[in-house]
Specification:
406 residues; mainly alpha; 15 helices; 72% helix; globular; transferase
Length: 406
């Protein structure tokens, strides 16, 4: 038996929906079968993580136990009487929470497989959840977490491998109640729509761009790399657009599956994409693209860094603070994707785009009367943003590394 990647084939959904049938019947009749939900989760986790040599499954168990001990220990510290809310206790709790992910990310760079004890699908998204809980425990937003609630939150199987990233309090609100029949019927309609749209995105449009077109365009771009400076040709431009379409439809399709299955389980997992290629500027793009990740980075890195700099009065200029925040935020995002030059440049590119966008918005505000605003300028803004984003995806794809160095 091999590991079965969630949502990897249409056949997977047949078995998944059969497994979900008792949950659906129960919720429709106003009951949540918690024991069966646990059993269904165990079955899905076994198929996804315990096939082959079982190393992923063992790593997952070790990781969950480690993070649970850490989060619950920090919760106990914060809720004990006269807790001082010491910054360094919080700091080291966060550091310890991300150490397994750091090991996994460093492994390809160091070429030392022995350090990847926690290498399994979805470790990044589980780490985001754990760190979110530590930060909200420090803020006082989370005051109580039972061990099985922590496990249920991290191991919610529709989103375990690639998100979307939910928040603990929002998730708890859904799983602790049973929706009315009318609410659940509406959730089933919405979930079905999202599943069908996900099939269209991932298995049809994503297949056309990713399987049929992308290899051919890549081969043509490589064959023409001696025809222009830096190996560039019109086929590289074609690769940029084809890869961007594949990346969106494949990932958005997966996210729609995760949200749709969540709806069948009576959970309103937040959406991850909101027509990102209709964005008017790069900031609007990050409010539409992989939203749960971008909002997580905004809330738990950018905003906290801004607050820290303001509290310590490190920098007087708010513009300079914002620019430093963008550089830090997108550098971290780049390193999170991997320790290769194209991921780092991708992060720096988006930081520069955000800084430039803010500068343009400040200029536009000062010269509002002299700068036209109409349907043409809106269309141009969407067109420009789309091309800037697609160029960043060309960097992200790693194709330029292949074109120039291999």
């Amino acid at each position: 038996m091999h590991n079965i990647t969630p949502y990897s084939s249409p056949v997977y959904f047949i078995y998944l929906l059969l497994l979900l049938l008792p949950i659906i019947i129960g919720l429709y009749n106003g009951k949540r079968y918690r024991v069966y939900e646990t059993l269904a989760t165990v079955v899905i986790l076994i198929t996804a993580f315990f096939g082959g040599n079982m190393s992923q499954g063992i790593s997952l168990i070790a990781y969950i136990l480690f993070e649970m001990l850490l989060v619950l220990s920090y919760l106990r510290y914060r809720t004990k009487e006269n807790s001082k809310n010491n910054f360094w206790v919080f700091f080291w709790a966060v550091v310890l929470a991300i150490i397994p992910l750091v090991f996994v990310k460093l492994d390809p760079l160091l070429q030392n497989p022995t350090i990847s004890l926690f290498a399994f699908m979805g470790i990044s998204y589980l780490t985001f959840k754990s760190v979110e809980m530590i930060m909200e425990i420090r803020d006082g937003a989370i005051k109580e977490v039972k061990p099985w609630e922590f496990i249920r939150f991290l191991l919610f199987f529709p989103t375990i491998t690639s998100g979307p990233i939910d928040r603990f309090k929002r998730f708890q609100k859904d799983v602790l109640k049973v929706p009315t029949r009318e609410e659940y019927v509406e959730m089933m309609k919405t979930g079905t729509h999202r599943l069908m749209l996900g099939f269209l995105y991932k298995f049809i449009i994503g297949y056309v761009f990713g399987t049929l077109m992308l290899p051919k365009v890549e081969a043509l771009a490589m064959s023409y790399r001696d025809s222009g400076p830096l190996g560039l040709s019109w086929w590289v431009l074609a690769y940029m657009y084809v890869y961007s379409m594949y990346l969106f439809f494949d990932f958005a399709g997966y996210s729609l599956f995760a949200v749709g299955i969540s709806n069948f389980m009576g959970v309103k997992t937040p959406m991850n994409f909101n027509q990102p290629f209709r964005s008017h500027n790069i900031k609007d793009f990050w409010n539409r693209w992989h939203m749960t990740l971008s909002f997580w980075f905004r809330d738990f890195i950018y905003m906290r860094l801004m607050f820290f700099m303001m509290k310590k009065k490190l920098i007087k200029s708010r513009i300079t603070m914002a620019n430093i925040g963008y550089l830090a935020l997108f550098l971290i995002m780049g390193f999170w994707h991997g320790e290769t030059w194209f991921y780092i440049v991708y992060g720096l590119f988006h930081a520069g785009a955000m800084i430039s966008n803010d500068a343009w918005l400040r200029f536009k505000k000062k010269h509002r009367k002299s700068i036209p605003h109409n349907k043409f300028t809106e269309a141009f803004a969407i067109f420009l943003t789309f091309n800037i984003v697609c160029f960043s995806f060309l960097i992200f794809s790693g194709f330029l590394n292949t074109l120039w160095f291999n």
